[in-house]
Design a protein that fits this description.
- With 200 residues, this protein is mainly alpha-helical.
- It has one domain (3-198): Apoptosis Regulator Bcl-x, CATH 1.10.437.10.
- The chain contains 8 helices and no strands.
- It has helices at residues 10-25, 47-67, 71-82, 88-98, 105-124, 129-152, 159-166, 176-198.
- Helix 3 packs across helix 5 (105-124) and helix 5 packs antiparallel against helix 6 (129-152).
- The longest helix is centred in the C-terminal third of the chain and has 24 residues, at 129-152.
- The radius of gyration is 17 Å and the shape is globular.
- The relative contact order is 0.16.
- Keywords: Apoptosis, Membrane, Transmembrane, Transmembrane helix.
- Belongs to the Bcl-2 family.
């Protein structure tokens, strides 16, 4: 069951999450160098939605932090920034590259991380007006290409177990059976806790 059935909106949560991930990447940039993002997306309306966005933001950050060491991936982001005429088509190519093997919760988190990184790079090359464009392009791509998949897969509430697995460091150093058990227990525990908190 998607979040829509709980009075929460998967669309609102997704757009707020994009904004949170971008703001997290820009947190160390002087505020006068960053254009305001608030009027561009609708903020979440309930405490439950805020908690979900906050938890998802942490998981996206962990997944993104793991990608910082991937030089090929970082070079691809740098290449987009260095291209003259950074426009929607270029962003869409990057987004489609992220999902060329199909849509997963982890790849959605990666796309949001890419948006945050692109926003930071644009500020660093003195094109802060591009931050608002990146936010809007990511939101548009999310609504047009990912939102229906999210709803079909139970909404954001069902993303937690998959994102918990994706954000666990060092799983490969454990035996596969132990890792499976650990991941299963973590996913069930996290999902149960979130469901319990949302029903209170």
């Amino acid at each position: 069951m998607s979040c829509e059935g709980n009075g929460m909106s998967d669309e609102r949560i997704g757009t707020a999450l994009i904004k949170v991930v971008i703001e997290e990447e820009l947190k160390d940039v002087p505020s006068e160098d960053v254009p305001p993002l608030t009027p561009l997306v609708v903020d979440v309306t309930s405490e439950q939605e805020r908690k979900i966005v906050s938890q998802l933001g942490v998981m996206c950050r962990i997944i993104g932090d793991r990608m910082r060491d991937d030089t090929e991936f970082q070079d691809a982001i740098d290449g987009v920034v260095q291209c003259s005429g950074f426009k929607w088509d270029r962003f869409k190519q990057v987004a489609e590259k992220v999902f060329e093997q199909g849509i997963t919760w982890e790849r959605i988190a990666v796309l949001f991380y890419v948006a945050g990184k692109l926003a930071l790079k644009m500020v660093e090359v003195h094109l802060p007006q591009s931050v608002r464009e990146i936010l809007m392009w990511t939101v548009d791509f999310f609504k047009n290409n990912l939102l229906s998949w999210i709803r079909e897969h139970g909404g954001w509430i069902n993303s937690f177990s998959s994102l918990a697995v994706a954000s666990m460091p060092g799983v490969s150093s454990i035996s596969s059976f132990t890792a499976f058990i650990l991941i299963f227990i973590t996913g069930v525990t996290l999902g149960s806790f979130i469901t319990w908190r949302l029903t209170r």
